[in-house]
Design a protein that fits this description.
Structural class of chain A: mainly alpha
Strand order of the largest sheet of chain A: 1-5-2
Oligomer: heterodimer
Order of helices and strands of chain A: EHHHHHHHHHHEHHEEHEHHHHHHHH
Strand order of the largest sheet of chain B: 2-8-7-4-5
Structural class of chain B: alpha/beta
Order of helices and strands of chain B: HEEEEEEEEHHHHHHHHHHHHH
Number of strands of chain B: 8
Strand content of chain A: under 5%
Number of helices of chain A: 21
Largest sheet of chain A: 3 strands, antiparallel
Number of strands of chain A: 5
Helix content of chain A: 55-70%
Radius of gyration of chain A: 23 Å
Shape of chain A: globular
Chain lengths: 476, 361
């Protein structure tokens, strides 16, 4: 009997098995580290520390000086925290920030009616709708924040209100829905941290999936007397990517089989896990790369009118800017990428792979380039403005305090002339990494190396053009 | 046992959270707005925030302080660099940078109404950045209403029309040089000393053109200046410049230069040519547009214009400084500068049409 062929649009190649053969180092095999991670008050302790900074940031933003570079909220949120997250935490430790983020904490504490001790959750018991179990809301939330970014990043009061809105939304969602719905489906920051955390060399995984399959009580997901069920609604037994694991280490504490580990592994492995790729994540990759490019153009480029428009100098110009900004993110760049994918499919004769699937898969090649572009872009303002951190530590409200004696520390831009020398190699690393991922993804679809090479060329050309675009902006 | 441990941990955690969420805001706000003013009870602390004129100017426009009681002004700017000074009190804080509080302390010694103002051109409406410091004396409450050091001149009584054009019939073709004038005077032995001539002139009430004509026509009372009348006009203008230099104290010119560069150069230009960075925006400002057809927008005066300057007198410029240029955007300086400072400014203005340096250039 001849087997009927499925329609092209529904056919997929077999999922690539999780690359288990790569070397990993189990950090939790270090006894003291394992003990720390299993210590129940750990997360509360870390969150309490960040909560202090967070409360101070909101307070200074709302009642402190409206001058951005003298306001603790602006400097510590958009310079210090951003530099820490984008340049260190995400590339090296993935979602580690999510483990210590204070935003969901109040909601979670209310939901748990406890700070540390495991207790049954108390919410309205609503389940998050299936059709919204994706990161489209995060994508649009990020875009929403992004079009207002010039205002949010420079006006302390706006920053304070946005942070406050995040907390209130997280609390509201915690009271209605189970677990961390805000983090998982709403948080605009969590969206990009999740995407780029797939590059990180740190992962939380089960040691042996077979143990999880056999273990009926599923404490890691449902919770036990040792801890809560995964706040991120992730079943660790099937966890293959960092994207939605908040590294809260609850599963480490709850797993009675001692089957959860924190590993060091080669970076970027998650990008090759084909099974869980989706259009929402692909769009996150487009949005993040496009935003990095647009921000570089707005903030580093020579176009004063663009800066004025982003700064909402007048409403009409801003509306045009916002429409252009969103169109670039949702239509122009994805459209160009789709065209490149279509060319790739045609030229390499990958007729068995739907263009849509190739479009989604190849989009993951933008992840390393996008992250490196963000790091390179961030260097340009972080190094120039980080010296403001000292005065605002002494005088967080701009009220004339001098707590640490550093209030009058002068603004000192660090290595301003050398920043391009740092940006270029960072971008080139991103490009090479992106090309490598493209090649690996191409091989998932191609039956021969020549076919893979042909399919890579249009995507690689687009990555090169994007890289040159960034270089043009950074080098002036 | 386990339950007891949990309870203890939860209690500690709750205390920490309350400390952060409630204690931190309460402590910071309580200190700033409660404890801090209490700690400085013997000093009157006033916070003044500078904002662009279109956003309100100084956040406190009237400050009331007491004679003899120390005052601590905490100055901040919310937007651009402003300058802060209190006229006629000798308090000058210099530049106030955005978000960087600047503290100025002083003890007012005399009751009255003083004007504080922005000392750096910050925006089109910079001149509107003014406020009043009321210094009251509990022993003499009415003294607070006394303006401090008012200009004493009555222009009407002197017959001076500040707004009338004062273009000279005769004016120098090139910039007169005091140094050349000095050399001419030295090589003309039959002339009296410059002091003798200056004693019979009133350089504050006479324009350079009038002085020129008096010298040319030998009309200076009780003096014979015939040799000057025979000189070429250019040389005689150099002599006029020389007399102007001799009649002006160098310290006064230097004080005037400082005041001019701080307060006037933005519109009138560093070189006095009326081409300061604020000149163009002054003309296009909304206020000026509103006045079009009534008083009309005007360019800032060009002090290098020989015809206009040769026809003007020190009294005219002094009067314009005191009163300001009605409808032109020129602020009134009478409430800010002392009489000495006003005359110092006038003295400096003559350095634009005349080269008053001692070395010939």
């Amino acid at each position: 009997m001849t087997q009927a062929r499925a329609p092209a649009s529904r056919r997929r190649r077999a999922p690539t098995p999780h690359p288990v053969s790569v070397p990993r180092f189990e950090l939790t095999s270090i006894r003291w580290l394992d003990a720390i991670l299993r210590w129940r008050p750990l997360q509360f302790t870390l969150i309490a520390a960040t909560l202090g900074f967070f409360v101070l940031a909101i307070l200074t933003s709302l009642v402190g000086t409206p001058v951005g570079n003298r306001n603790f909220g602006i400097i510590f949120v958009w310079i210090v925290w951003w530099a820490l997250v984008i340049s260190l935490l995400v590339p090296l430790a993935g979602r580690l920030w999510c483990a210590v983020c204070p935003i969901p904490a109040p909601g979670e504490w209310l939901q748990r009616r406890a700070f540390i001790a495991p207790r049954p959750l108390r919410t309205l018991g609503k389940r998050w709708p299936n059709r919204l179990k994706n990161i489209w809301i995060q994508n649009f939330a990020f875009l929403g924040v992004a079009v207002f970014s010039a205002i949010i990043l420079t006006r302390p009061a706006v920053t304070g209100l946005v942070l406050l809105a995040f907390v209130l939304l997280a609390i509201g969602l915690s009271l209605v829905y189970e677990r961390r719905i805000f983090c998982r489906y709403f948080c605009p920051v969590g969206g990009f941290i999740g995407l780029y955390s797939m590059i990180a060399p740190l992962e939380l995984r089960v040691k042996d999936p077979e143990v999880c399959r056999r273990h009926k009580t599923k404490e890691c997901y449902l919770g036990s007397e040792n801890g809560f069920g995964c706040p991120w609604l992730v079943f660790p037994g099937s966890l293959k990517r960092n994207a939605y694991c908040g590294l809260c280490t609850e599963c480490l504490k709850t797993c009675s089989m001692n089957n959860v580990a924190l590993n060091l592994r080669p970076p970027g492995l998650d990008l090759l896990v084909s099974k869980e790729r989706g259009l929402d994540e692909a769009y996150k990759a487009f949005i993040m790369s496009t935003c990095a490019l647009l921000y570089s153009a707005i903030l580093l480029g020579p176009w004063g009118a663009l800066k004025d428009a982003a700064n909402m100098e007048d409403w009409r110009t801003w509306v045009v800017y916002a429409i252009g900004f969103i169109a670039m993110n949702l239509a122009v760049v994805p459209g160009l990428f789709y065209a490149a994918t279509w060319l790739s499919r045609r030229w390499a004769r990958l007729s068995h792979a739907p263009t849509r699937q190739l479009f989604i898969d190849f989009a993951y090649a933008l992840v390393p380039l996008g992250l490196m572009a963000w790091i390179a872009f961030s260097l340009s303002f972080v190094l120039v403005n980080i010296s403001y951190a000292l005065p605002v530590l002494s005088d967080p409200f701009g009220w004339g305090w001098n707590l640490l004696g550093t209030r009058d520390f002068p603004w000192t831009p660090y290595f301003p002339a050398r920043i391009p020398y740092l940006q270029v190699p960072i971008l080139i690393v991103g490009l090479i990494f992106g090309l490598y991922i493209t090649w690996r993804i191409a091989n998932e679809h191609a039956s021969a190396p020549e076919q893979a090479l042909r399919s890579v060329v249009p995507i690689a050309a687009l990555l090169l053009v994007v890289t040159f675009g960034f270089l043009g902006l950074y080098l002036g | 046992m386990e339950i007891g441990r949990w309870r203890r941990q939860e209690a500690i955690a709750l205390a920490i959270v309350l400390l952060i969420v409630v204690g931190l805001p309460a402590a910071t706000l309580g200190y700033q707005f409660g404890l801090r003013p209490l700690l400085s009870a013997n000093v009157q602390e006033v916070e003044i925030v500078g904002r662009l004129p279109e956003r309100g100017g100084w956040s406190v426009e009237t400050v009331r302080v007491q004679v003899g009681k120390p005052v601590r002004l905490i100055l901040t700017s919310d937007d651009v660099v402003h300058g802060f000074a209190i006229g006629k009190m000798g308090v000058d804080a210099g530049w106030v940078y955005p978000g960087q509080p600047k503290v100025v302390e002083f003890t007012p010694q005399r009751a009255g109404r003083y004007t504080f103002y922005c000392t750096t051109w910050c925006a089109e409406g910079h001149w509107r950045m003014r406020g009043t410091l009321e210094v009251y004396d509990p022993q003499d409450p009415s003294a607070v209403n006394e303006p401090v050091d008012p200009p004493q001149t009555d222009w009407q009584a002197e017959g001076i029309d500040l707004d009338a054009p004062h273009l000279a019939e005769i004016f120098p073709a090139k910039r007169p040089s005091a140094a050349r004038g000095a050399a001419i005077w030295q090589r003309t032995p039959e002339l009296p000393t410059p002091d003798q001539v200056l004693a019979r002139l009133d350089l504050r009430r006479q324009s350079p053109a009038q002085v020129f004509e008096m010298l040319q026509e030998d009309r200076v009372p009780d003096l014979a200046l015939a040799p000057l009348g025979r000189m070429p006009e250019g040389d005689l203008w150099d002599v006029v410049a020389f007399l102007w230099r001799e009649g002006t104290a160098a310290e006064s010119v230097e004080l005037g230069r400082e005041l001019y560069q701080t307060n006037c150069a933005a519109c009138h230009g560093e070189n006095g040519d009326g081409q300061g960075p604020a000149a163009a925006s002054l003309l296009s400002s909304s206020m000026e547009r509103d006045l079009q057809g009534k008083h009309g927008p005007q360019s800032p005066a060009d002090f290098t214009d020989a015809r206009s300057m040769a026809g003007g007198t020190g009294m005219i410029y002094y009067g314009k400084l005191v009163r300001g240029g009605m409808g032109t955007g020129m602020p009134y300086w009478g409430t800010i500068f002392t009489e000495q400072e006003l005359w110092a400014l006038v003295d400096y203005l003559w350095t634009f049409p005349f080269d008053l340096s001692t070395q010939e250039r």
